[in-house]
Amino acid sequence: MAVPEGSVFGLVGPNGAGKTTAIKIVMNIVHATSGRAQVLSWDSRDLAGSAFCSIGYVSENQKLPEWMGVKDFLAYVRNFYPTWDRELENDLVKRFDLPAKRKLKMLSRGMCMKVALASSLAYRPRLIVMDEPFSGLDPLVRDELIECLLRGAGEATVLISSHDLAEIETFATHIGYLEAGQLRFSEELRTLASRFRQIELALAAPPLLHGALPESWMHLDVSDSTVRFIETRYDPGRTAANILQVFGDVRNATYSSMSLRSIFLAIARVPRGDNV
Amino acid sequence: MNQVLHIFRKDVRKHWLEIIVSLLLLFGFAWKMPMIWTPEPRYGEVPASRWLFALLGLSLCFSWWFLIVRAIQGESLVGDRQFWLTRPYQRRWLMAAKALFIIAFVNVPVLIFDVALLARVGFPPWHYLPGLLQAQLFLTAFLIVPVATISVITESSVQFLLILFGVIVYISGLTWVVGQIPSSSAGGDIPGPLVITVAAATCVALLVLQYFRRDTLVSRWTLLGSACVIAIVCTAAPYGRLVEHAYPDLLAGSLVSAGVRIERKSTATRDDNSSTGKTLSLYIPIDTSGLVQGSLVKVDSARLTIYAPGGLAWNSGWISTGHDLWPGLTRFTQAFDVSSEFYSSAAGSAVEMRIGLAVSEYREGTAKQVTLTAGSFNVTDDGMCAIGQRSYSYTASLQCKSALNEPAFAAHLDPMSTTCTLPDSTWPSLQLRRYDGNASADFGGGAGLFPVQPFQIDFGAATNPGGDKAVSIVCPGTKFSIATPVPFSRYRIETEIQAVHLASYRAFDF
User: Which pLDDT score is estimated for B192?
Assistant: First the structure.
């Protein structure tokens, strides 16, 4: 998996796919049993100390020092970062509407995420890593967080894990799909959306299928003289030629774009090991 | 360095209440400390204030432990959800910050406490700087580092208490198992340095491993491995041979002085009922001779072997004893618990008894003459005394205090030279009274918690010929001499006696 610099990379996959583990390995929170990861210019196993001045990390289950007030917490972490921007901090506190004096243990989950995000943006990191940051938040807070993330991140690279596909689709530039610890694919979101099509064909008569179908087709469903399938490498000319070769004359063909959610549901039904 | 102070300040802000509580407990402990500098008023009676003082000391230790655990677990090294893991913490500065916190709120207060108490008694603290630093070392090694080690491999106070409970169960179990091994009570201190080395190395390894690699699984396995190594060392040590190696056979022509002989007894004068069912006690009177003037002999351990007809034999293994021998003392009695089964088999016939004594011999250094005064007076470099009431008695003895450790000493007083007024000139015995101080106590003033050590120089009292009245023999103007015993030699003496009956040794002769 490669996260291009400057991208907003959404790491998606079902629960238990290994998204959090992958991120923890990247952040050197847990140690990989095999393999390696490189983060910016560091091997992830060497990631410690001042390397974290360039990296921001926000996680849904991170334990913050609950005894501290919001202002105290920001003041405490500020001292660790030479690049901390007080103006940006104040701006984030205002934008997130953070109660400066309230203790972290008195804050709602959404507020805690905002504090964590503010404390990870104020030093303008080059890389922001977020592990399921929107999980369990109400839509309003979620939108606020996303907006602030996109505004505050600036030129930073963002790696964000989520199982909420609809949400990721709205702002990610790249996407990686993880399933049972395996990366099924990783590519630019625009490319992904353009290469998947839901195709419905109306034929003159029920088709007689013999011989191999194109590898890029999946979930072929034949019902009388109607055929439905998903083209995973859509190209107008090539796809049309393939249809003609397999089915001959087609009365009507409908090509529909697919939402990210539909794409993933389709992929999730493909046996593991098959290319998509 | 900036990070060290930054983390330290945060910890102080977080734990200010616990810090105040521990400082107040320490203040209370210091305030009540003089209570233990005077002997207990009566035998078997412990005043409520002493219980309170003990409770205060225990609470103080718990408050330190709580403080250490909370400070270290504030940036827990166990788990993967802590916010600080992905912040620019330098691990070495984090470790230094926690060390600074412990030094500031445990070590330094104890050092001030030690200095204040020494000064209060009249010992100039700067004279005892090495001893004070040694006390800090003991405090760190025995009260701080083990707690810090458990803290770095646990995530919460509950986990800490569970592991601590496990450690206590392990130590108790191991102590019990080792206690069942013959000679372990006498030779137990011999593998001690190896056990302490393994334990210390484990603690240091775990602290370094957790702070620099944060590998809790490896750390916990290391702890378990060390526990196994210590258990193997303690249970497999050849205690009997270790004692024999540490106390070589007394060779003919040696310069050592002690000679011993088992006293022959023919009948039991008073039967002793001390029997646990599996064992019963034999009391072996031993005559001593040949101790030259200026020598002190401590019987560190003893072993009894009994050979009965028919090839029956029984061996007690080396057991710890606490007898002090000096010229003029001619007899002492050593008790052994013999198995009831063997006793039943051997009681009807004449047996052979062989006793081995492992002893340490000391020679007195240059003696110093001391004249008692009404107030306090110096007796040794580190000790000052005053005439006070003896423990559990109405007569007087010398109540002394020393800095950090109880000094080893040998004191002599000729009762005929007492300046006390005796009702009858025949009262004092003509024997020279003497008292041998502990020659080995050296524990950094109880790890800094007891910087002033109280002790007595008790010459006894003059008793009337009937033995029912006693008067003091230490009064202002009375002179005595005091010297420091110097280790001279360690050796084993063996003696045997033939054709005796075990029943003759069932009674304790005073």
Answer: 78
- Chain A nearest-CA residue for B15: A67
Which residues of chain B neighbour A48 with C-beta distances below 8 Å? 90-91
- Which residues does B163 contact at the CB level (< 8 Å), separation at least 6? B150, B153, B154
Q: Which residues of B114-151 are buried (b: 16+ CB within 10 A; e: fewer)?
A: bbebbeebebebeebeebbebbbebbbbebbbbbbbbb
A68 pLDDT exceeds 90?
A: yes
State the average pLDDT over residues B169-197: 84
Chain B neighbors of A31, CB-CB under 8 A: 215
Residue A233, pLDDT > 70, answer yes
Q: How confident is the model at residue B440 (pLDDT cuts 50, 70, 90)?
A: very low
pLDDT top residue among A103 and B360: A103
Q: Are residues B339 and B475 in the same domain?
A: no
Q: Please give the structure tokens belonging to residue B65.
A: 């432990």
Containing domain of residue B479, as a range?
368-483
Which residues from chain A sit within 8 angstroms of residue B75, using beta carbons?
none
* CATH number of the domain within which A145 lies: 3.40.50.300
Are residues B498 and B451 both part of a single domain? no
In a domain, B188, yes or no: no
Per-position DSSP letters for B194-247, written without gaps between them: HHHHHHHHHHHHHHHHHHHT--HHHHHHHHHHHHHHHHHHHHH--HHHHHHHHS
Examine the domain organization and report whether A245 and A207 are in the same domain: yes
- What ipTM does this complex have? 0.85
Looking at the fold, whether B431 and B372 belong to one and the same domain comes out as: yes
DSSP code of residue A23: H
**Any domain includes A133:** yes
- Domain span at residue A184 reads 8-191
φ/ψ (deg, to 5) at B495: -145, 155
Query: Could you tell me which residue, B300 or B36, shows the higher pLDDT?
Result: B300
Residue B104, min C-alpha distance to chain A (Å): 21
Least confident piece of the model among A107-116, B86-95, B180-189, B477-486: B180-189
Q: How many domains does chain A have?
A: 2
Q: How far is B359 from chain A (nearest CA, A)?
A: 57
Closest chain A residue to B87, measured at CA? A52
Residues A153, A247 share a domain: no
* Beta-carbon separation of B87 and A30 below 8 A: no
Are A44 and A122 in a shared domain?
yes
Does A109 reside within a domain?
Answer: yes
Report pLDDT for B431.
60
Instruction: Read off the tokens for B191.
Output: 């593998």
CATH number of the domain that B334 lies in?
A: 2.60.40.10
d(CA B189, CA A235): 85
Residue B42 confidence (pLDDT) above 70: no
What is the per-residue pLDDT for A75? 95
Say whether both A59 and A158 belong to one domain.
yes
Instruction: Answer whether residue A264 is part of any domain.
Output: no
CB contact under 8 A, A27 and B215: no
Which of B83, B88, B215 is facing A62, going by the closest CB pair?
A: B83
Contact A65 B74 (CB under 8 A): yes
pTM exceeds cut of 0.80: yes
Q: Do A29 and B87 touch (CB under 8 A)?
A: no
Q: Which long-range contacts (CB under 8 A, 24 or more apart) does B89-93 make?
A: B89/A49, B89/A52, B89/A80, B89/B3, B89/B7, B90/A48, B90/A49, B90/A50, B90/B3, B91/A48, B91/A49, B91/B211, B91/B212, B92/B211, B92/B212, B93/B1, B93/B3, B93/B4, B93/B7
* Last residue in a domain, options A139, A156, A191: A191
Q: Is A33 on the interface with B (CB under 8 A)?
A: no
Q: How far is A104 from chain B (nearest CA, A)?
A: 13
Select the residue from B3, B73, B80, B93 to test the A interface by mutation, using most A Cβ atoms within 10 A: B80
Per the domain annotation, does A265 fall within a domain? Answer: no
